[in-house]
Design brief:
The structure is a homodimer of 421-residue chains. With 421 residues, chain A is of the alpha/beta class. The first copy, chain A, is 38% helix and 17% strand. Chain A is built from 15 helices and eleven strands. At the A-B interface, helix 2, helix 3, strand 3, helix 4 and strand 8 of A face helix 2, helix 3, strand 3, helix 4 and strand 8 of B.
Amino acid sequence: MPINKLPRGVAIVGAGMSKFGAFPDKNGRDLFVEAYKEMTRSVDKGLDPSAIECFYLGNFSSDLFERQGHTAPLLADAVGLTPIPAARVENACASGATALRQGVIAIASGLYDVVLVGGAEKMTNLPTADVTDTLATAADVPFEIAAGFTFPGFYAAIATAYMARYGMKPEHLMNVAIKNHDNGALNPKAQFGVTIQKWMEGRVAAALKKGKPAPAWSDIWDFLHDDSANPMVAWPLRLFDCSPITDGASAVLLVAEERVREFTDHPIRILGSAQASDAALHDRADLTSLPAAKLAASRAYEMAGVTPKDIRIAEVHDCFTIAEVVASEDIDFFAPGEGFKAAEDGMTAREGAKPINTSGGLKSKGHPVGASGVAQAVEVWKQMRVEAGERQVPGDVPLAMTHNVGATGSTCVVHIYERRD
Amino acid sequence: MPINKLPRGVAIVGAGMSKFGAFPDKNGRDLFVEAYKEMTRSVDKGLDPSAIECFYLGNFSSDLFERQGHTAPLLADAVGLTPIPAARVENACASGATALRQGVIAIASGLYDVVLVGGAEKMTNLPTADVTDTLATAADVPFEIAAGFTFPGFYAAIATAYMARYGMKPEHLMNVAIKNHDNGALNPKAQFGVTIQKWMEGRVAAALKKGKPAPAWSDIWDFLHDDSANPMVAWPLRLFDCSPITDGASAVLLVAEERVREFTDHPIRILGSAQASDAALHDRADLTSLPAAKLAASRAYEMAGVTPKDIRIAEVHDCFTIAEVVASEDIDFFAPGEGFKAAEDGMTAREGAKPINTSGGLKSKGHPVGASGVAQAVEVWKQMRVEAGERQVPGDVPLAMTHNVGATGSTCVVHIYERRD
């Protein structure tokens, strides 16, 4: 086994993303161009695009969502980067971070110094039921989908297993939703730039405007327990436990350490990068943790030479609220069975000891599948450079982590970042 | 620009492939398991699977062909390789060689010593028209498919442009078909293990058996000009100018140079690896050559430090007969406009000066899209190790090349191999 160490330093010197949301008039290419343009503007000393030598794209299924394959060279051409090598990387919802990791590896190899990593997904073309079916292709189809599962059901199974073992109640999960919408409300790129409180008030105002009686919600908890306001999707998961269907794209520019100063004096170094795979959910003994996430996190910590205590913030894969709770334990921020209590106690809020998903997470920022892993790196870039505006966490962010999961954890990719001015 | 040199040697120490063909009872996973098993058996000193550290899969669209995404970890799990990192790489018909290149880069980076590279595609589930539509997603869909193109049309446009410039006749292309079927007839893994001569004789025998009059073909040229035997697909391309729809999988094992002797004393070293992208066909000034192929080939030659004269054999991307003619020029085996004459003169036959597609090529061996690029490496492995049986080329094969194209050349990946006992 070779040494778990990057033989060559790699840093992010630019990062950008499109607005996340539903954009009927834009395709994946349009969205990627937006992300790419913001990335170029973010490079402190300016970017000559001819410096870019290679491109990796994270994309889950432009095939099924847009009936467009061979996406990487098309996007490279759309931003004028032909004839550099371009490759699409697919690992379901972890496609973005898997692409980021290929970029890191490509620079580590010495073959390239400057690598563009993008993520893109255009999902809202399809009717919602078809999106659910398309996302279901990320599972072990002949074994799981044939048995009637789709993703809300998978994560509901994880939630019930977790509840049974650790005594969590469904209400605990709402703390995650409330916190992530609080954060997303301060993120101008988020799909749902609104707190759940404001959402509720909007529903009341809309009812009154139509001359209907105001709904009898005395507070946000009433609202989240109301089957009409927050319908059950797959018990115990309700609508506000689920991330949305989203169009969006993201981009970061990676540069070999010795050339970083050509681009910026405020790079974000990638200190750790690790990935692991696992059998599909139907073939696992325990559902309360994702072994691939635990393994990827421990390898990333080892590569970076840091401990969970050292990490100031993390963007984790909250495709469902329960996924954030499990993630917060898999990355060893909290002990098994403690993650839901940490969320309840405000430990993972912006002002808490271990802020998680300051961007709003997949839950509120949105989850354009292949773009999400790279968008996590964009948030880390902004927080570490103190450019996150109203949602900036207090104090320094010297070290951060991203955690990106494919399907129910058949893939997990973890990165650790260091501010190195 | 970093130096175009692999900082760490990489060699193939095992290679295998499934039978190529139409297998209604097998899915992509079954086929990959076959390829993987043959690869493990080919490792001279035996393979402990726990030595494998990382997996790249070339696959074009399991999404559309099988409604299965997230294919890499599923296949890794099917052969017992969980929890190693697994990633799918997609670049249309160049997915296989793009995956191979990621494997080379991963070892070059020093992060891994032993990397499995696979390719798989299960295409025959769908009706033929749907396969054509699925393959069409590899083009620039909003610009090209909306205008009515599918792939036979694209390559017909390339053929007509080439004919107009160089005076080639449609009959010249049949030399490529005849030669590749001659080779494929000697490849037990080929989808069409039969020469066109035998094919014709079979048609005559079948007619007589049914009590019908024997078709009036006096020779193979009559046969290939007969609209019922060899129907026009997209002028000037007939049925025998086109590669088939195929199910199949392939696998090679890559090892860092310093560990090669643990696995074999007869490794095949990867001396050059290069990739380039291009705009889609509709946006190019000239159709008689693929700029991405020329660039990838020249960079691979540069990395390997060899010239076209040094290369003994090549497996090139003959999705259509015209593609082989153009490829033989793009890799600089022949001057522009000379490729069709070289095929006519037998230069590219097994006994010729520059054998091309000794495996039968995509044309006769079959073209399971994502598997093809890796299967090219499997053929090179066999020829260089003098294990190609009846189709073995005469004399030594110290240097070989593979050339894998995505779509109409929006991607091209070229590798150069050296026998290093």
